[in-house]
Amino acid sequence: MKIKKCDIKEAEKFYNDYILFDFPKPEVKPFKTIKSLMERGLYIVLSFEEDNNLKAYAFLCYNSKKDYLLLDYYAVLKQYRGTGIGKKIFKILTNEFKNVKGIIVEAENPMFSKDNEDDIIRKRRISFYEKCGLYDTGVRENVFEVSYVVLFKEIKGKAAQDDILSELEDIYKLLVRQPYYDLLVKFYI
User: Fold this and answer.
1) Residue 48's pLDDT is what?
2) Do the beta carbons of residue 22 and residue 31 sit within 8 Å?
3) In this structure, which of 14, 80, 95, 97 has its CB flanked by the most CB atoms within 10 Å?
């Protein structure tokens, strides 16, 4: 598996070709936010290729101290889903970031599913991350009217719930400008 750190131009191509189609519109932030954070060294876009074929991509945002990461977007290309490659790539991804305390992941909260099909998808997503070694932190968030369960992958030891909450607040203050942060970003324990 070949991992490539993308430059801004490549990141924008992934954004336009994949993010806009793989994620619900309310979850997709403007590319200018990603670009600004990349220019400041706080955002990383990775591609994962095997046999010269793109298999998956990941967009990650550091907190201001660069000791936690938020997995902002992670997707395996549709034709490779259900093959086990997502778990394999997630393990490779976590091995790339031995310098951070851990990786924070948001998954849509099943309590707010629109219907049975949506509930199954949300629960399957959480189950996938749990199989990758993440655990439910008990932190909940509502970001731009989308409710999430917050999961965590320990890399350099355990993190307290308050630490994860504090780091998420720090990351979102980088991602969302005022007054939108105060209006549209809420955390709960």
Assistant:
1) 97
2) no
3) 14
